[in-house]
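Hey,
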Amino acid sequence: MVELMEEHHAGIPILMNPRSGNSRDAHDCGAVVGTHVHQRHTTYGTTYLVADRAIDRAANRQQLAQTRMRWMTRVPATLSEAHAALAQVNPHPLASLTEGYRSHEWLSTDGGMAQRWVLIDSAARQPHAQHPVAKPWRQQRDKAVKAFKK
């Protein structure tokens, strides 16, 4: 695994740190926030941090709050609040972003911190997203057809 930080305009790596396969992502991401991100913030002004979901721990959020840096990460569907939010979203009235993309925003207080979550729906990804969902139904249908033919 490699810890990587890039300059956002040119995409030039400014930090590349090999990590042990036994390292814990959540702890190591916090160490990066504490050392390198704070330095970048004071040197270059406000920047954005796009990070792995491991960054979203209470200790890391506190460090990010001290830098006043804006950050974003993926919200895992394993969170119960994410399940509840997805269940409430009606796909038809989503706001249009560009052709083929729609979005819906809501506020969350996951982990005791105010967050803005954005669901982005892509028409091009729908067939890929439906495939794993439909697989158990196809398997059940195939078993029923075989049983019927016997």
